[in-house]
Write a structure and sequence with these properties.
With 77 residues, the chain is an all-alpha fold. The protein is built from four helices and no strands. α2 crosses α3.
Length: 77
């Protein structure tokens, strides 16, 4: 994972700070500090960042084709 990808993930996780548990929030704040100091993350930290990302950001649901068709279906007259 490149530094740019790490920064993007951290930026996306900022929206979910209020939903994080106390331990996750502490880890996340550590990542933010390391990002500000331009430090690269080691393998263990990358795994933790991926876990945080998959826990909070990946839960965004994308509408299915059927849901979109039902949403934009013309009303029968």
């Amino acid at each position: 994972m490149t530094i740019i990808e790490q920064n993007k993930r951290i930026q996306e996780l900022r929206d979910y700070e209020s939903k994080m548990s106390r331990t996750d929030l502490e880890e996340f704040r550590m990542f933010v500090k390391r990002m500000k100091d331009d430090e690269s993350l080691d393998q263990l930290s990358l795994k933790k960042l991926d876990r945080l990302y998959s826990t909070y950001v990946s839960k965004k649901s994308k509408p299915t084709d059927e849901a979109l068709k039902a949403l934009f279906r013309k009303a029968h007259q």
